[in-house]
Specification:
Elements: H1 4-11, E1 17-18, H2 24-34, E2 38-43, E3 46-52, H3 53-61, H4 72-75, H5 89-99, E4 103-108, E5 111-117, H6 118-141
Helix pairs in contact: 5-6
Length: 142
């Protein structure tokens, strides 16, 4: 059974982080430069939340706010369940589905060690299925 540690080993644990005082426009520029859909908000070297494209559209654009005046900390999502390196891909998928989340912070010893997305979990599931198929084909042919 694949775990979060397998996902982070495959994709890496590099995370784009910003402070809560950063303006939304600057965070969006960073997201565009790195071709990512979210940034992790860190305060005093601790996980504070995540700002996503969805947060921007719902909490800035639709409310008539200005991204050059609004701070990331004002619109970030903070209600995230944490997962650990030992959690299974399946349990993470269930957690994301039940909470309607696209991202989960991975926390070990009260420190952020990575972020996993629903896309990461789908990719890991596909890789696991491909390995199983390959093993079954080898077994059948031997």
């Amino acid at each position: 059974m694949r775990k979060v540690s397998n996902v982070l080993q495959r994709k890496g644990n590099r995370v784009a982080t910003v402070p809560p005082e950063m303006t939304v426009i600057d965070a969006l520029k960073l997201m565009a430069e790195q071709n990512i859909g979210s940034v992790v908000v860190m305060k005093d070297e601790k996980f504070a939340g995540i700002m996503t494209e969805r947060d921007y559209s719902r909490k800035v654009i639709l409310k008539g706010r200005h991204s050059s005046e609004t701070k990331v900390g004002e619109i970030m999502s903070t209600d995230f369940p944490y997962v650990s390196m030992n959690d299974t891909v399946e349990s993470c998928m269930q957690l994301m589905t039940s909470h309607r989340l696209r991202y989960l912070p991975v926390i070990e010893n009260e420190q952020l060690v990575g972020i996993i997305s629903i896309n990461d979990l789908v990719t890991e599931t596909i890789l696991t299925q491909a390995e199983t198929i390959s093993q079954l084909q080898s077994y059948i042919q031997s």
